[in-house]
Amino acid sequence: MSRRPPRLRWSTGAFTLFEVALSLALVSIGIISVLMLMPMGIKAQQLSRYQLLAAAKAIDIMSVNTNQWRKWDKQRLEASTLGANTINTVAHAPLAEQKASNWRHGCLPLPPEIARRLDSANDEISRILAEGGTLFYASPRPNSSIAEGDLVLDDRALPNESSRLVFAFIGHAQQYALVNHPLKAWPYYDWYPTPPRGRPGSSTRSSRHEDAWVLGNWAARTEFRAVVTKWQSFPPAPAVPLLSDVLAYRDLTKALVLALSMPVESGGVPRPPTGDAHLTVEPAKVLAASYVAQAMAWLTSTSFSPAPPAADMALYREEAARAHESSLAWIRRYASTNPYDWGLDRPLNFQSAWDHPLLQAELFASTAATAVATPQPGPNGDVAWRILGPRSSVTNLNCASSFPFATSGDAKASHERNVANLPLSFGDPSTFNLTAKFAAYERCRQLVFWAVDWQSYEDFEAAPSAAIDAGKFAHDSAGSVAYNNGAHKFGNPEVFFVFGNATRTTIPANQGAALGNRGIFLGIHGADRNGNGVYDRGPTPPSVRMRATVVGRFNFYNPRVWCGLKN
User: Fold this and answer.
1) CA-CA distance, 477 to 487, in Å (whole number)?
2) Per mean pLDDT, which of 350-354, 460-464, 559-563 is the most reliable?
3) In sequence order, what are the beta bridge partners of 384?
4) Residues 530, 532, 537, 538: what is their CA dihedral angle, to the nearest 10 degrees?
5) Whose CA is closest to 546, among 7, 24, 119?
6) b/e string for 518-542 if b means 16 or more Cβ within 10 A?
7) In whole angstroms, what is the distance from residue 503 CA to residue 498 CA?
8) Helix or strand run (H / E) with residue 243
9) Which helix (H) or strand (E) holds 361?
10) Packed helices 221-232 and 243-259: angle between N→C axes, nearest 10 degrees
11) DSSP H helical segments within 73-204, as ranges?
12) Which helix H or strand E contains 37, and what residues bound it?
């Protein structure tokens, strides 16, 4: 019986069209998912970039604000009437938005007509604008200690992403302390020991001592005047004074000390002040001790005719050393005990926190002080709130002044207005609150950043600059320049980017605040807000609203008082 070989069977199974379609669908879903993740990743990367730039800008703003506190001594201004000095209350306020908003520090106000087109979560931007706040954008040039228009900065444009950041300060600022009294840029400073500063018969800033003696009605005025007369009789250098005249001058300073009933040591050297260190001393005695020390130190020189005998020089040096130490003891006691005694210039060689009194504007008067808190009118119809301190007035308020005694003209009128207005400028001290207790949350504010392509609007460079606070105008109410009108803290923050005319073909140099340059000063023709030097127009019409996305929030504390650690 024969066997047949086994028959091979081939499989006829295969993928159906349904299975192929299902596989393709799964592969497509995977590919699409990957493709969908790519823009999300790009957006996440872009958001991280914005967050990095926002953090850097926030640090920059806070650093500028902190460093500016250290420069308060250069920020003080004064006027003969309260209403003439609005600059003092705005441009020099310890507020983050005021200090950062200028061409040097890189925060420029966004034009309101563009800011009002921006939408944000919970209408946050709209609420800020409705409450009087400002939306800012970063300057197209980096911060610099030189002018923004300097050619050195032309090749240093900031990254493009930074131009899409806008930011605002959230939360109401506290009422802040004034840098100084608007009628008196106190404290004034001088070196001690100092020679007498008397009235030479005309207006001079060197007459403060005699102004103080006369206006303060201090004792021993006759003896003081004798010292001044003798001091003013000496010829200027390089003339050599007579030794006999210098000795006579020294003796007159000793006579002034005795006339003020000051105890003295051997040689007529005033004794240092006695009693506890917190006890105040009379400013007239401080000056008398200073005059003796200055006269005795002068005698240690050999530039006299004739030269002092060698046998006397040792005594002169010993007396000068004791008089110098006594003079410093008197001025230190005076400067360390009462910040509200303005009779004398504070010592440059012994500066302390007690040099600066705490003052604020009387914005919220008590019922009993309503009449006192009424704005005080000035000669040009301008008004200003009265000033508050912890007490109703200041000791020796009218004594030292930068509006010194004068015999005629505008200087005489300014002096008389200043003297008359200072006592009237103080309000009811019961409403003073700079030293009141506060909770930390009461000082907390927030710096918020949004990302939005606002520079794609057609009119992003044609829109006029934001309104400028009158306190940033460098003129007083009489139209006079009250401060350097080219200073970065005054004027339009966009000053180095504004167009000079309606054709927008030129960007003139800073023209200051002269009346003929009002259009440039106000930025009515717009500004070169991307910093490329030409007028640009974006593709988006003004009728389109844009959505701004929050990219960062930073908490900070807004101080009420100018402060800084002494290095």
Assistant:
1) 19
2) 460-464
3) 376
4) -50
5) 119
6) ebbbbbebbbbbbbeeebeebebee
7) 12
8) helix 243-259
9) strand 360-361
10) 160
11) 87-90, 96-100, 112-115, 124-130
12) helix 17-69
In the chain, the amino acid numbered 469 is: D
The one-letter amino acid at 446: Q
Q: Helix/strand/coil (H, E, C) string of 296-324?
A: HHHCCCCCCECCCCHHHHHHHHHHHHHHH
DSSP secondary structure letter of residue 136: E
This prediction has a pTM of 0.78
CA distances from residue 487 to 75, 388, 492, 514, 559 in whole angstroms, order as listed: 11, 29, 11, 14, 24
Cα–Cα nearest to 111, from 493, 535, 505? 493
Residues in the chain: 567
User: What would the two tokens of residue 181 be?
Assistant: 């009294």
DSSP 8-class letter at 513: T
Write phi, then psi, for 109 (nearest 5 degrees): -65, 135
Q: Three-state SS for 550?
A: strand
466-517 pLDDT tens trace: 988 776 776 666 666 555 555 556 678 888 889 988 899 888 765 555 556 7
- The 8-class DSSP code of residue 159 comes to P
158, 138 contact by CB (below 8 A): yes
Neighbour-count burial of 544, counting CB atoms closer than 10 A to its CB (0-12 exposed, 13-18 middle, 19+ buried): exposed
- Give the strand pairing for 549-557 and 444-451: antiparallel
Kind and range of the H or E run holding 108 = strand 107-109
How many CB atoms sit inside 10 A of residue 278's CB? 9
What are the phi and psi torsion angles at 450 (to 5°)? Answer: -125, 155
